[in-house]
Design brief:
Number of strands: 59
Largest sheet: 9 strands, antiparallel
Number of helices: 4
Distance between the termini: 80 Å
Structural class: mainly beta
């Protein structure tokens, strides 16, 4: 069918700039060169706790093609990167605000939209830390983030499956609740669907006296209850602070990517609102959408308009059919037909006006096509034939069906229909929970072995066709937790060195805690553990009391996960099938692996043999000026003269680690640095640029020269020579161990060539030269490090 097109009429004028009264500052982002924000300006800086670099938060030049977005300089907050950038309210005096409300606004454009239901916060106010008047530095310290703004992908909920792709909403939380949290709190959303590539003005208001946040999208006034462009107040209290110090942008894995310009901060709405509804144009970004479906099924059209300061927009939908234009829809961003008929075939458009009388028309190539021929139900996509999952995990099965509607769905287990909110079976010990039992997507949480069996979906047509049903079956096997070694868990990494099997539960026993303190914050625990085969991060969510000691022996049951490319045994304290317990204690830590910087070029070796283990760097120089304060989480790079070596990141989690707090690093050289080998780069990258050594005790930075080896002995053992000497061990009580290099030569004067570099967890330094008596006579030396 030919689609009739009507020209786009847009009533537009230049936006008027509102007079400012007590505005703190206004940054258009246009004056900076492309590149790192913290090297372009002295007013934006890396938020200290962090790597102190924010080197992946960039100023970019946008090239948007949408008529609703403007080109120019933007601050890109990328959900594939990490780090923070903050600007104080008063960068000269670091004065903070301790009462009333603080406002911030910025123009934001989503250049990447998270998947449905996903997302994490990218902007917030930074609280004064500690919660007392600033002492000159406290305004930039800590993680008391308030008024968290997040981007979350829209769900394509059945039965209205024609939702436009790449849509999202903005939400707000106080200090909890963003959807990426392991234990998300209440989430409040501005009730407007947004789309990638369109500029919107976001206004964040934080009421300090009541510790609540509000969020507006293109609001025309500070009328929270009357204006549907607002959401709030937040319903979680979070980490209440009595003062705010600055505005912060945040990058974290799992969020979307937004490009930001025209950032304004003040203490009134008028300070940050630079547009007027009467003079701001309405721009319609999406001028087409096509829906094809069978009669009896639903269809959804949606228009995406924006008007800075335009307030609540008014919508009117029209259908063009047979040369006639007729109004068909009320005041809604969407046009919904719950049950299609042949007469719904045609072109559609929408007229949009803002609260100031400005308006625009969408294009008329919105189109609905209805297949009115009776068609029995069938599957476009069937659920998997077989699925294996672990006890306590969540099962998700889905299908896509077609045919004359309305289509209905019913899931069953072993031929017994399932009910939402009930367990799969009535068997003792079955704590599973069913959701979506009458939709195309079934979810069963809290799996037990009761759920081993056949899940069947039956699709029924209500359109009087024959046959009127079809079905598909999935055989599900639920496995009990499996006792494994850490080396086995590492063997499950995929080709990108990410966690492979993330659903099964695994039990690790007799593993030693190798970090001195928790390396994360909040209601989580992050400790590295190591058994005889390898090391891994043990990450517990939902328990701020689990604080094992270095040398504790633990047993844990959880699932595999990846964070910043590092492998984790992840445990949710609320999951009754997962556990973590201290079973004993030892003073015998694993001996460190002497680590050469050029090994980062061998990803396979790093991922399977070294990551997660205690490792030791030797003879390294720091690349930053000294002295360096370790009062907050601190990162620096070290390097040495090893062939093919790269600058290597060393991280001290001083924000959580009492042994590192209030310490100062006074030298540029260390004989040895001992810690756990990990990663810090988020996203899908890994390798030399992403590995780091986590140091959790100040004594593990050894800046004193090693003691001389004076008691080297050699004994025969068959054809072997066994060397023994007294070593400085790496233990809980003895910090700052050294490495020992075994050298051999055929002449007492040399040259001596290295055979091995070793570190020890006892004073018994030893090395066996295999088949030493079968070759030329050798002379041996021990050097350190």
């Amino acid at each position: 069918m030919k689609k009739v097109l009507l020209g786009l009429a847009v009533l537009a004028s230049l936006a008027a700039v509102h007079a400012q009264a007590t505005q703190f500052w206004n940054d258009t982002m246009q004056s900076y060169p492309d590149g790192c924000i913290t090297t372009n300006t002295t007013v934006w800086f890396a938020h200290p706790p962090g790597s102190l670099t924010a080197n992946d938060m960039l100023i970019v030049t946008s090239n948007y093609t949408s008529g609703a977005a403007l080109d120019g300089k933007r601050l890109r907050v990328n959900g594939l990167n990490n780090e923070y950038a903050m600007r104080l309210f008063d960068p000269v005096n670091t004065n903070s605000v301790y009462g009333g409300s603080v406002y911030a606004s910025f123009i934001v454009n989503a250049s990447f939209v998270p998947s449905a239901g996903k997302g994490t916060y990218f902007a917030n106010f930074n609280g004064v830390y500690p919660s007392s008047p600033p002492d000159g530095t406290s305004a930039t310290n800590g993680f008391q983030f308030s008024g968290r703004v997040f981007e979350i992908g829209n769900t394509n909920a059945w039965p209205y499956t024609t939702t436009a792709p790449l849509t999202y909403r903005f939400g707000v939380a106080n200090a909890l609740g963003d959807p990426a949290s392991a234990t998300p709190g209440p989430q409040l959303y501005v009730p407007i669907d947004l789309i990638k590539g369109v500029d919107y003005q976001v206004v964040l208001k934080y009421d300090i006296d009541n510790a609540v946040a509000y969020l507006g999208v293109n609001p025309a006034a500070d009328s929270i209850t009357a204006n549907s462009n607002w959401s709030g107040p937040t319903s979680d209290t979070g980490a209440i602070t009595n003062g705010l110090a600055g505005l912060l942008f945040r990058q974290r894995t799992g969020g979307g990517t937004v490009d930001i310009r025209d950032v304004v901060v003040g203490d009134t709405f008028a300070d940050v609102m630079t547009y007027s509804a009467a003079t701001s144009p309405v721009l319609v970004a999406t001028n087409y959408q096509t829906v094809t479906n069978y009669a009896g099924n639903p269809a959804l059209l949606e228009v995406f308009a924006t008007s800075f300061g335009g307030g609540t927009l008014n919508y009117k939908w029209y259908q063009i059919s047979g040369g006639t234009t007729n109004p068909v829809g009320g005041n809604s961003q969407t046009y919904l037909k719950s049950s299609l008929a042949g007469s719904d075939t045609g072109n559609y458009f929408c007229a949009v006006t803002n609260s100031g009388g400005q308006g625009a028309l969408s294009g008329t190539n919105f189109f609905i096509s209805v297949n009115a021929a009776p068609t029995p139900p069938g599957f476009t996509t069937k659920p998997a034939v077989t699925v294996t999952s672990g006890t306590g995990s969540t099962l998700t099965l889905s299908c896509v069906a077609f045919g004359t509607g309305p289509l209905s769905y019913q899931w069953a287990f072993n031929s017994n229909p399932l009910t939402d909110g009930a367990p799969v079976t009535g068997n003792p010990g079955d704590v599973s929970l069913v959701a979506g039992s009458q939709t195309p997507a079934l979810t069963v949480s809290g799996l037990t072995t009761n759920e081993t069996g056949n899940f069947t979906v039956t699709v029924t047509s209500g359109g009087g066709v024959s046959p009127n049903t079809t079905n598909a079956t999935t055989a599900v096997t639920v496995l009990l937790p499996t006792a494994v070694t850490i080396a086995y868990l590492r063997s499950l990494e995929n080709a990108n060195w990410q966690a492979g099997d993330t659903t099964s539960l695994f039990i690790v026993s007799n593993a030693v805690v190798t970090t001195y303190a928790n390396t994360t914050s909040g209601t989580t625990s992050s400790y590295y553990i190591q058994d005889a085969t390898g090391g891994i991060n043990l990450f517990v969510t939902g328990d701020n009391t689990f604080r094992p000691k270095m040398g504790d022996i633990v047993a844990a049951c959880g699932s595999l996960a990846s964070f910043n490319n590092g492998l984790e045994l992840a445990i949710n304290a609320a999951n009754s099938y997962q556990y973590y317990v201290v079973t004993g204690n030892t003073n015998l830590l694993p001996a460190p692996v002497v680590f050469s910087l050029d090994l980062t070029n061998n990803a396979g070796l790093m991922e399977t043999n070294l990551e997660g283990r205690i490792c030791m760097l030797t003879n390294v120089a720091f690349t930053v000026a000294q002295p360096a304060s370790l009062t907050a989480n601190y990162n620096t790079y070290v390097t040495n003269n090893s062939p093919n070596s790269v600058p290597f990141n060393v991280f001290w989690p001083a924000g959580q680690d009492p042994d590192m707090q209030n310490r100062t690093l006074t030298t540029n050289f260390a004989y040895t640095i001992t810690g756990v080998l990990s990663q810090f780069k988020s996203g899908t990258t890994y390798g030399a640029g992403g590995y780091e050594l986590i140091v959790t005790r100040i004594g593990d930075i050894q800046t004193n020269p090693p003691p001389a080896v004076t008691d080297l002995t050699a004994k025969l053992s068959g054809q072997n020579v066994v060397l023994n000497w007294t070593a400085v061990p790496y233990t809980i009580d003895t910090r700052g161990a050294y490495s020992y290099t075994v050298l051999a030569a055929t002449n007492v004067k040399g040259p001596y060539l290295p055979l091995a570099s070793l570190a020890f967890n006892t004073t018994n330094g030893t090395y066996t030269v295999t088949n030493a008596l079968q070759g030329t006579r050798q002379f041996y030396r021990i050097s350190s490090p």
